[in-house]
Amino acid sequence: MKGARVVSMPSGLQAFISDLDVLAGKNFPNEEVTQLFKQHPFDQEMLEPYTFLSEQRYTRNLLHKRPEYEVLLLCWSPQQKSPIHGHEGEKCWMRVEAGELYFSNYSLKSVDSEVFVDIDCSEVGGPGFVDGPAVIHRVENLTQAPAISLHLYARPFAQCDIFDKENRVRERVDLKYDSVYGKLTYAR
């Protein structure tokens, strides 16, 4: 990862946040949020202060947080993927900012104590591709190049369920940030 730093938010990102504040008051209408994501492109220079890559796993970098929502930049080194995970019944949107990501949405079925997740659909998206609102899904960087995605989580949560498809189990995990407002959350 790159070194620690604290940055002031660029005006383009501030405008995006202001529009999200309005949509938060409307409980994040699906179509309006999707349109907002399509109407606010960001260049790599604007996102660079929040871009932290790691060889070990994808990184979660907090850009803005309020009780109603949070905005994160997720950075994916080649061949990294998220676990199959849920969003606690809340809405999540994401846009590919750089590279290419593979999105898979799943449906959940429980039988007795076993948990089954079945893939519903998969899509590949490059820069500008918007996915959401996601419920249970996985995001993967299947390429040999880094990828970056911008995420909106309505009503943020500190834990989520991850699903082990092969063993048919669900596990509750704590969520952490790798950086907050451009500053790493741990010593290198």
Summarize the structure in short.
The chain has helices spanning 11-25, 30-39, 44-47; strands at residues 59-65, 69-76, 84-86, 92-98, 101-111, 114-125, 130-131, 136-140, 147-154, 159-164, 169-174, 179-180, 183-184. The chain has 188 residues and is an alpha+beta fold.
Question: What's the topology here?
Answer:
Blueprint: H1 11-25, H2 30-39, H3 44-47, E1 59-65, E2 69-76, E3 84-86, E4 92-98, E5 101-111, E6 114-125, E7 130-131, E8 136-140, E9 147-154, E10 159-164, E11 169-174, E12 179-180, E13 183-184
Give the CATH superfamily: Jelly Rolls
Reading off the top of the CATH hierarchy, the class is best stated as: Mainly Beta
Q: Write the H/E string, N to C.
A: HHHEEEEEEEEEEEEE
From the 3D coordinates, which CATH architecture would you assign?
Answer: Sandwich
Report how far apart the termini are.
Answer: 8 Å
Widest sheet: strand ordering: 7-4-9-2-1-12-13
Question: Whole-number average pLDDT?
Answer: 90
Structural shape: globular
Determine the fraction of residues in helical runs and give it as a percent range.
Answer: 10-25%
Can you tell me the number of structural domains? Answer: 1
Strand content: 35-45%
